[in-house]
Amino acid sequence: MNDQLSDTQIHHLKQQLENRFNALWEEIGAELEGASKERFQQISGEVHDLEDESIADLFADLNLAVLDRHVQETRDINSALARIDKGTYDTCSDCGEAIDYQRLVAYPTASRCVRCQDAWEKMHYDGSHARL
């Protein structure tokens, strides 16, 4: 495991985070614009039966879930960029050990090392997730 990331590695990861942040904002803007147009079309006189309305509600809920996920990811990116600025980006928030470069390449917003993330997930798993 690397003890500290090089300036080149940090620059590469910061660029990756900034690119993803910009892409997310474009997606959020497109989602909001699309939702606004759809709402306008509904208001402008289309008549729906109850089944159509329930399907429209489902799509609206799905769009909100996607937007919520995008907004949460932008928060995670902002947090990672703040850790870069503070010099703590590659330090696990739980144990203080270094976060491996390969983990950060795969998951640039990671704030925990693999060992601590695994322990956190086991401690916070409540079994209520949907299963197929």
What does this structure look like?
The chain has one domain (7-124): DksA, coiled-coil domain (Four Helix Bundle (Hemerythrin (Met), subunit A)). The chain has four helices and no strands. The protein has helices at residues 7-43, 50-86, 101-106, 114-124. α1 (7-43) runs antiparallel to α2. The protein is flat and about 60 Å long.
Keywords:
single chain; 132 residues; mainly alpha; 69% helix
List the helices and strands and how they pair.
Layout: H1 7-43, H2 50-86, H3 101-106, H4 114-124
Q: What structural class is derived from the secondary structure elements?
A: mainly alpha
State the share of residues found in helices, binned by percent: 55-70%
Shape: flat
The fold-level CATH name is: Four Helix Bundle (Hemerythrin (Met), subunit A)
Poorly predicted tracts of residues:
none
Determine the mean pLDDT: 83
What is the correct CATH architecture? Up-down Bundle
Number of helices: 4
Described by strand count, sense and barrel closure, the largest sheet is: none
Please indicate the percent range of residues in DSSP E strands (runs of 2 or more): under 5%
- Please write the CATH class name: Mainly Alpha
